[in-house]
Amino acid sequence: MRVPLDRVGWDALPLVDAADERPLIERRAVLRGGFYEAQARTMIERVPQVAGIAQRWAISPYRGCANACRGCGARAGHRKFGLDAGRDFDTRIVVRPNAVERLRAELARWSGEPLAVGVSGDCYQPAEQTYHLMPGLIAALGESAVPFTVYTKSPLVLRDAALLAQAGAQVAVSIAFVDERIRRAVEPGAVGAQARLELVAALVEAGVDCRVLMAPVLPLLSDAADQLAATVRRIAATGAGAVEPVVLRLPPATRAWYLEWLAQAHPHLVERYEELYDRAGLPAEGYERRITGQIAQLCQSYGLHAGPPAPTPHEPRYPQLALV
């Protein structure tokens, strides 16, 4: 039986002369048009357990994200390039120009387990307008019959709606709240909630299986009962099939960046956050259960499925050979 590839392609940059003090990525990548191009040695990588999504494996054509979401759990990945997990993650985007070629090679021996697309950086962020990697990735995944979910906040995904529908893909659009004041503070590079709600409606109309990732719910900032109700009500109006709530995760690199902002914007909340989160960055179990339970009740009221998607049955692309 074929097994998943247990490799992390972002760690494969070799060591260089310690006398060169430039960040590792600047010594081993090509800077073109404001993006760092680094050839991928492998595409399929493990999803950190703290991420909170259903898939265990992911592919990401871009590392770093212009959405600049303060609570993004992928920030630690930039440290492997000698960059910081804060401003560099938002502005110094690493591109894998050979992503399609490498993915095809790996899918040829992949077990068929579902994949997430865009976990380490929105796969439809502005870099995609330059590199156009997603159509090739969608085609490769569709041909392999591997179930996959695209995670995005960007209306650019509509460009590939027909390809996504043909490939049987699912798209999860992130809409955690509908308060624009909060969005401008914690997701400054992303489009507003209204644009994302319209995006969901457009994807549904185009025949794409679309759900809403209600993530991240921000403790003490976007978790009030009226805020949750307003968000679910407006999601229901889009025609989305389901809502998957995820409370904010704060793994170490993300935690430092997020709490730095929180100390400036809401200093009275810092101590409460310190009490709420454990060392791994997970919120208190009782708190998380209460919030996801509230969202589930709201979804039931509006006829929406709540929670992660049901496991997708999959068969290995190549059957196991008999040993005798």
Offer a quick outline of the entry.
This protein is of the alpha/beta class and 324 residues long.
Q: Based on DSSP secondary structure assignment, what is the total number of beta strands? A: 12
Mean pLDDT: 91
* Cα-atom radius of gyration: 20 Å
Largest sheet: spatial strand order: 3-4-7-8-9-10-11-12
**Largest sheet, strands/sense/barrel:** 8 strands, mixed
- Provide the low-confidence segments as ranges: 1-16, 316-324
- Count of separate DSSP helical elements: 12
Identify the overall geometry: globular
Run of helices and strands? HEEEEEHEHEHHEHEHHEHEHHHE
Kindly state the percentage of residues in helix: 25-40%
Question: Could you characterize the architecture of this molecule?
Answer:
- This protein is an alpha/beta fold and 324 residues long.
- Helix content is 35%, strand content 14%.
- The protein contains 12 helices and 12 strands.
- The protein has helices at 24-28, 87-91, 99-107, 127-131, 134-144, 161-167, 180-186, 193-205, 225-236, 252-265, 270-276, 285-301, and strands spanning 30-32, 35-37, 45-46, 57-59, 62-63, 94-95, 115-117, 148-152, 170-174, 209-217, 242-247, 305-306.
- It has an 8-stranded mixed beta sheet. Strands 1-2-6-5 form a 4-stranded mixed beta sheet.
- The longest helix has 17 residues, at 285-301.
- It is globular and about 45 Å long.
- Residues 1-16 and 316-324 have low confidence and may be disordered.
